[in-house]
Every structure is written in C-alpha cells, then in structure tokens.
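Quick one, tokens below:
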C-alpha cells in the first residue's frame, strides 16, 4: 500500500479550482447543490477569488484532496465589488431557487446578498479573514490553526497590521479557536435575524509569526 502524502499548507492556484469546488460543496453541503452550486463555484466564485491580486487562498492538501482552505483578503471592498459584479447576486439567486423549501438556507442567501450590497463598515480594517473551511472528517487535527498561521504570515508580509473576521455568535467552538489565535471580540451585529460576532487581531510587527 502506498504511503499517504503528508498534509501541506500551500497557496491555491487555478489548477486547484476543481478540488476547491469539491471541498466547498462537502464543507457546506446544505448551501451548494451538485449542479447549481457547482456551476456558481466553478465559474464565478473561485475564479474571481484566485484572480484577485489583493486576495490569497491557502489550502490544506493531502494527496489530491483539499482538507481545508482559508480565504484572506487585504482588499475587502474591492473583493466585495467584484463578487457582486461578477456573480454575487446571480450566485445567491441560484441558492434562493434551491432553498425554496429550506427557510434556513433562504435566510442565509438573502443575508449574503444584502451583505454584498450594503456599504462596508468603515470602522473595520480592510484586511479580512473572508472564509475558512475544514473537512468535517479532518477537524481536531490543527488544520484550521495551520491555515490561519499561513494567513498571518501573508498579512504580515504585505504590511497589514490588523485583520478582522465575522463568525456566528453561537459558534462557540470557532470563537474559541479564533481567540487562541489572538483574535479579540469587537462587537455583535444582527442581520436577517442572525447574530454575528465581529472579531479582530492586531499584528505585532516586532514578533515573527511561525509559518
């Protein structure tokens, strides 16, 4: 039996789109159907992200599979605009079509559209942990931490001193992980009846971040 390839954290490229689409649908199967969701992710979402110079994607890769990914951007406004112009409304409309029988998915899709349309909170830094996902069968192995460490190295390298993220206020396990990575609670916001916690971390330029 061939030995398995050790897990590695590497920047994603266009050649990883198929694997990223597959991983994205596995991680968030309630929101992305095989046909509609796959089309949106393959032709709009991931190509836009990987083409955006102010955005970076790191993947946790084991053999040919993606066990996790993190999307980090230092151009939050630009990325939001590109997603909106390229496929933000179209993609979420596809989700709405699929979610006619699932009120939870419908509410989340409406929230995504409104979040793209509304002006960004100017009190927030421009650098953002945009999205992170880890395969359910790979959780508890430190993959999320390693992905965020790669994000920290990149943000530090490009000169960012602060980044923020949004997490559901009831996602206690994710919040605990973010706090161990030096994110601090900022404030709560409510959108479409759902509570979100805004968290931020400041980079100390005098210290190095382990890759």
């Amino acid at each position: 039996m061939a030995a398995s390839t050790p897990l590695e954290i590497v920047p994603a490229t266009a050649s990883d789109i198929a694997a990223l689409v597959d991983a994205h649908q596995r991680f968030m199967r309630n929101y992305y159907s095989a046909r509609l969701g796959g089309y949106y992710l393959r032709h709009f979402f991931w190509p836009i992200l990987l083409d955006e110079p102010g955005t970076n994607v790191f993947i946790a890769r084991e053999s040919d599979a993606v066990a996790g990914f993190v999307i980090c951007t230092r151009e939050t406004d630009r990325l939001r605009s590109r997603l909106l112009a390229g496929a933000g409304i179209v993609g979420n409309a596809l989700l709405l079509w699929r979610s006619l029988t699932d009120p939870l998915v419908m509410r989340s899709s409406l929230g995504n559209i409104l979040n793209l349309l509304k002006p960004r909170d100017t009190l927030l830094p421009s650098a953002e942990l945009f999205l992170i996902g880890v395969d359910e069968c790979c959780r508890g192995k430190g993959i999320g931490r390693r992905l965020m460490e790669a994000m920290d190295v990149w943000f530090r390298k490009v000169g960012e001193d602060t980044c923020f993220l949004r997490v559901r206020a009831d996602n206690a396990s994710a919040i605990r992980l973010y706090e161990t990575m030096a994110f601090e609670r900022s404030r709560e916001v409510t959108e479409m009846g759902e509570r979100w916690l805004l968290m931020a971390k400041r980079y100390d330029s005098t210290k190095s971040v382990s890759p």
